[in-house]
Every structure is written in structure tokens, then in C-alpha cells.
Amino acid sequence: MQRTRGALVIMVFALSGCANLGVEPWERDVLARPEMSLDSNPVDAALDDHIYFSKEASSGGRGFGGGGCGCN
């Protein structure tokens, strides 16, 4: 009896962890603030991106395949 009750409690807690998936629309304004960005210094990030794209001779951003060296 105790084992089944304990297993049931553990299963309820495990399944309740998946109750909140994603960000609600009213929370997106808080997460879109500049201080929530992943880079701590946007000037350094812009310079690093410029150097990266200049050396690779690629265009379109990091999400595109290929580069200036011919390797995909």
C-alpha cells in the first residue's frame, strides 16, 4: 500500500513538471528586453560577427550552409 502510494506521488510530480511548456504571450515582452540577450557586450559581438563573416566570405548569417573556402 505504501509503495503504490509513494509511486503515485512520484508519478504525479513527474508529470506535473511538463505542465508549463513554452513562454506565454504576456511574458514575451520581458524576455525581449536587451538585458536578456545572450551576449553580454553587443559591440564585441558585432565585431566578432564582422570578422567571422569577412574571413568566411559568406553572406546571410550563421544559419546558412557553405562558406568562402568551398567546404559545406
| Beta-strand residue percentage | under 5%
Order of helices and strands: HHH
Question: Judging from the principal axes of the Cα atoms, what is the shape?
Answer: elongated
Secondary structure: helix percent: 40-55%
How many helix segments? 3
Q: What would you call the structural class?
A: mainly alpha
Q: Give me the count of strands.
A: 0
Gyration radius, in Å: 23 Å
Major sheet: none
Q: Mean pLDDT, as a whole number?
A: 74
How far apart the termini lie comes to 60 Å
Poorly predicted ranges: none
Give an overview of the whole structure.
Helices cover 47% and strands 0% of the residues. The protein is mainly alpha-helical. The longest helix is centred in the N-terminal third of the chain and has 15 residues, at 2-16. The radius of gyration is 23 Å and the shape is elongated. The model has no long low-confidence stretch (mean pLDDT 74).
Keywords, separated by commas or semicolons:
mainly alpha; 72 residues
How are the elements arranged and paired?
Blueprint (H helix, E strand, L loop, with lengths): L1 H15 L11 H4 L10 H15 L16
Short description:
By secondary structure, this protein is mainly alpha-helical. Helices cover 47% and strands 0% of the residues.
